[in-house]
Amino acid sequence: MNTTAHTAADASSAPVDPRAFRTFGEFYPFYLSEHANRTCRRLHFVGSSLALGCLLMLLLSGNAWWLVPGVLVGYAFAWIGHFGFEKNKPASFKRPLYSFMGDWVMYWDILRGRIAF
């Protein structure tokens, strides 16, 4: 058995700490790997779309209470995707800003057809 290959495989299967990434550019490939499940990505997309709808309602109505359902639907759909389908813990627990940025970059990538919906 080739021990070098075995060691490399062990290293690649080790859990990754999202806090280890120094830049968003380093983090985003990890973020995408945490969203490999198509249903999880779809739930993220729906939750983000609903959150945008709530933001639009806030802007149209001037009622700041639209922030509450916007945040709730955005995170609820994402967390259902992670816990129910992806079977992992959202990176937002350890890298909230990068995860928030990743949500919107992935959303845009889905809209442009760069990531399968």
UniProtKB/TrEMBL annotation:
The keyword Zinc-finger does not apply. The chain crosses the membrane at residues 43-60, 66-85. InterPro entries: Mpo1-like (IPR009305). Keywords: Membrane, Transmembrane, Transmembrane helix. The keyword Transmembrane helix applies. This is DUF962 domain-containing protein. It comes from Variovorax dokdonensis.
